Fold this sequence. Notes:
Blueprint: H1 10-23, H2 27-31, H3 34-61, H4 67-83
Amino acid sequence: MSGGEFNYSQCRITEIAYDIEQMFETEYFKSLEPETQQEFRNGVYILKKAFIYAQRIDWLVSGDDGEDTFHCRIAEDLDYLNKNEKCNVCCSKVTKEKCDNCGIPNLMKIEEPENGKS
């Protein structure tokens, strides 16, 4: 197994994202306002993104990847995450701007912080 710098704690991030996604089918979740539901979805996206960064940093500092590979893999993983998000309305594949099926804007899109602020 590669990595280990963080004692594989980054895997807990994906477990939390999965647990939140499971809530999407509950009556509780369905009773929430649409804006609140969207914040749950945004949270899942951010957790998935956090996992990618934690995993790639782990592999870099553990010596499994070099800097060139680190940058390449981060870019590939983020591209995969963005290309494989599902539409919140029809569950079809979503591109960066809109759903490929129903045309709903990509509400999962996370804007980069201005001026490097997070």
